[in-house]
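Contributing new records

If you add data, match the layout below exactly. Sequence lines come first and carry their own label; structure lines follow with theirs. Keep one chain per record. Anything else will be rejected by the validation script.
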Amino acid sequence: MVTTAQYDATGASGEYGSESPGATRAFARRVGALCRGGEAILLIGDLGAGKTCFVQGLAAGLGVPESLRVTSPTFTIHAEYPGRLVLNHLDLYRLDDPVSAENLGVGDMLADRAAVTAVEWPEMLADGPGGENAERLEIRFENAGGDARLLRLAAFGAAHARLLAALERPDEQ
């Protein structure tokens, strides 16, 4: 459950404490189950912070078959997984220089209401995903010692604020 949620004119924010990779995947599975399509989820953190682990749980929540192994598309940049909603997974770590979201087709991915787009290393998008004011859920991964992580969430836009609000309720899915 997300705690310490705050709301203001720009969006909403909250925190989630994860004690293990399994807990991170379980939380992300819940995020995926709550997605309705068209969400942009930006994953920010150091190498080994748990971003790909999060995407694996997100995929499960979106109904991606377990037979499809969700891994980081570090060398291919983009992977697409079918499920209840399509998961577009981008990993921009290997890019040498920031690139336009338009050049990667991110705008088209975000316009697809039958898909969810997760971006690792979104700071490599020169113009952000769809522009500075684009609706999105940003998740910052902070090391809290050992396998524990603190996930700081910031929602921008009504759909993403709704998602964050639903995550505050332990029984909502």
